[in-house]
Design goal:
This protein is mostly helical and 214 residues long. The chain has nine helices and four strands, in the order H-H-H-H-H-H-E-E-E-H-H-E-H. The strands form two sheets. A two-stranded antiparallel ribbon has the order 1-2.
Length: 214
């Protein structure tokens, strides 16, 4: 990866658009899995999730080490790289369950952001007990969701960015959050996978019109 691959720094005013752009880049493709179907997908998925969480924590904590303004320059690269780790983890978890063919961009968005923006994604999946049956978004509906996600995630990032001004302790907090955040993504992916393969259907543009805007 070259320096030009990474997102540029953002200001408070430009944060929503910048974060939306990063999300769009992350979900532009669904990565090929690095694993195949497992006879014990639950145990294997646990191992994949913990490995990804450790990787995310180390990366995020390292990027947060530079204090003050220098540390703020790493915010968007941090998000981009962490989401790429989580994206690969989701692809691997689906593969372990033999469900790679079902993984779509909509699934990826839901798995990556459900835990931090439930109000934005509440209409993207139908709840059936502990299951989450993900609807397939049209391009217009997906664009609306991504814009709302950009606003929501940017608010969280701006609100927590003060920790990057605290040497060491701030980096530890950022790394710990990345670890927890990655495990939440894995938990959502596994919840989605409890739904039967055929239980996915189209999510019309008309339904997206009622999606909440932060």
């Amino acid at each position: 990866m070259t320096r030009s691959d990474l997102p540029i720094p953002f200001s408070k005013d430009s944060a929503p658009a910048a974060v939306t752009s990063v999300i769009e880049r992350v979900i532009a493709e669904v990565p090929a899995p690095r694993v195949g179907p497992s006879d014990d997908p639950g145990t294997a998925a646990d191992q994949v999730a913990k490995s990804a969480a450790r990787q995310a924590a180390m990366l995020s904590g390292s990027l947060a080490l530079p204090p003050g303004p220098l540390g703020m320059l790493t915010v968007l690269p941090d998000l981009y790289l962490i989401w790429k780790i989580q994206r690969q983890m989701v692809a691997d978890i689906f593969a372990l369950h033999g469900r790679t063919a079902e993984l779509t961009t909509t699934h990826m968005v839901y798995c990556l952001f459900r835990h931090m923006a439930s109000h934005v994604l509440r209409d993207v999946a139908v709840r059936a007990g502990e299951r989450a049956i993900v609807r397939q978004l049209s391009s217009t509906a997906l664009s609306n969701v991504l814009s709302s996600l950009g606003v929501t995630v940017a608010k969280r990032v701006v609100g927590t960015s003060a920790s990057r001004w605290i040497p060491l302790a701030g980096a530890a907090a950022v790394g710990a959050y990345a670890y927890w955040d990655t495990l939440q993504v894995a938990k959502t992916a596994r919840r989605v996978l409890t739904a039967a393969p055929e239980q996915a259907f189209e999510f019309a543009d008309s339904a997206s019109a009622s999606s909440p805007q932060p």
